[in-house]
Specification:
The protein is an alpha+beta fold. The chain has one domain. It contains two helices and seven strands; from the N terminus they run ββαβββββα. It is elongated and about 80 Å long.
């Protein structure tokens, strides 16, 4: 799985878009077996103490609901670049954790036994 990140500024609005892509067959099998992991695109964000802010909670599935987009208008915020960076880093970390947690799930029932007689 890859996270591809696009950043752009249009008319003073900073936009960050995170795409999840290139899913392995193992990841797709895990999603079919255990469900697709979700992340929250909102909540608390900060970047080393210089920027701290809240965004509305928005639960999204990591594959189906991709891409994830956030916009920060320079006319509304003192440090939209810092906010965009904090959001990008935190949401990327949430995606990585959700996928890593999914990969660690084991089906305790599947097994193969061979009994020789």
């Amino acid at each position: 799985m890859k996270i591809r990140i696009f950043q752009e500024i249009v008319n003073g609005v900073l936009q960050v878009r995170l795409n999840t892509e290139d899913w392995s067959e193992g990841d797709l099998d895990a999603m079919r077996s255990f469900g697709e992991p979700s992340i929250d695109l909102g909540g608390s964000f900060s970047s080393g103490g210089s920027v701290s802010f809240e965004r509305p909670h928005a639960i999204q599935r990591v594959k189906t609901d991709s891409p994830f987009v956030a916009k920060f208008d320079s006319r509304d915020y003192d440090d939209p670049a810092g906010m965009a960076l904090a959001w990008k880093q935190e949401v990327s970390a949430r995606i990585v954790k959700a996928v890593t947690d999914m990969r660690s799930i084991k089906n305790g029932f599947d097994n193969e036994e061979v009994i020789n007689v």
